[in-house]
Amino acid sequence: MGLQDTILALKWVQTNCVFFGGDPSRITGIVGDPSPFNILVFGESSGGQMIRALMASPKAKGLFKRAIIQSDPQNYPLENRTVSQGVVGEYALSQMGCSTLSCAQGLSISQIVSATTLVSNVAPYLNPAVPITPLSPTIDGTWVAGDWSALIASGSLPNQVDVIMGIYCYWAISNE
Q1: If you count DSSP H runs as helices and E runs as strands, how many of each does the chain have, helices first?
Q2: Where are the domains of the chain?
Q3: Helices 3-16 & 46-55, crossing angle to 10 degrees?
Q4: Residues 57, 61, 63, 64: is their CA dihedral positive or negative?
Q5: What is the DSSP letter of 150?
Q6: Closest by CA position to 135, among listed 147, 156, 118, 152
Q7: For residues 32 and 59, what is the distance between their CA atoms, to the nearest angstrom?
Q8: How far apart are CA 68 and CA 32, in angstroms?
Q9: Other Cβ atoms closer than 10 A to 147
Q10: With left for phi above 0 and alpha for psi between -120 and 50, is residue 83 left, alpha or beta?
Q11: Cβ atoms of 78 and 147 closer than 8 Å
Q12: Is the pTM of this model over 0.70?
């Protein structure tokens, strides 16, 4: 999931909303100012996991003020760096026919997308340490400070914002 892209998009909205008819007075705050902008972020399912990652990201500090997390499978943890690089990264490189990141950077988008699909479907079964969502945001101490639940418990969540959480009661078993 593109945590860095999401943070960049939030910064872009702050800078450019006026050019699309947005009301700059509703986007309160200044980039770099510790008070949050008056922006609400919403995520459903894996999008909810992204909202948890944004709340755990020091790089997103002050970029939003409120969050809605809907049907976030809380048991899908954010990855740790060892699993992300070691198990998932090595498997992804092998599926691209590469052994280094520089090799992968020279591949076409279609080759990378094909490998990504395989990683999503197979990586959780390679090692018990790999979460069921192997391409989730990674706890690296810079972009994601730590596990969302642990950060809340310790009072050190980087983005302590207003949150509404909900779940659709038949979400995982619906036939629709």
Answers
A1: 7, 5
A2: 3-76+142-166, 79-125
A3: 70
A4: positive
A5: H
A6: 118
A7: 10
A8: 23
A9: 16
A10: alpha
A11: yes
A12: yes
Name residue, tokens 């092998």. 94
Ramachandran angles phi, psi of 70, nearest 5° = -115, 125
Strands 138-139 and 162-166: unpaired
Single-letter amino acid code for the residue at 49 = Q
Q: Which residue has the tokens 């395989």?
A: 118
Amino acid 38: pLDDT: 74
Query: Which amino acid is located at 141 in the chain?
Result: G
Helices (H), 56-147: 81-82, 90-95, 101-105, 109-122
Give the type of residue at 113: V
pLDDT digits (tens, 9 = 90+) for 18-53: 788 876 656 655 555 555 567 888 888 878 888 999
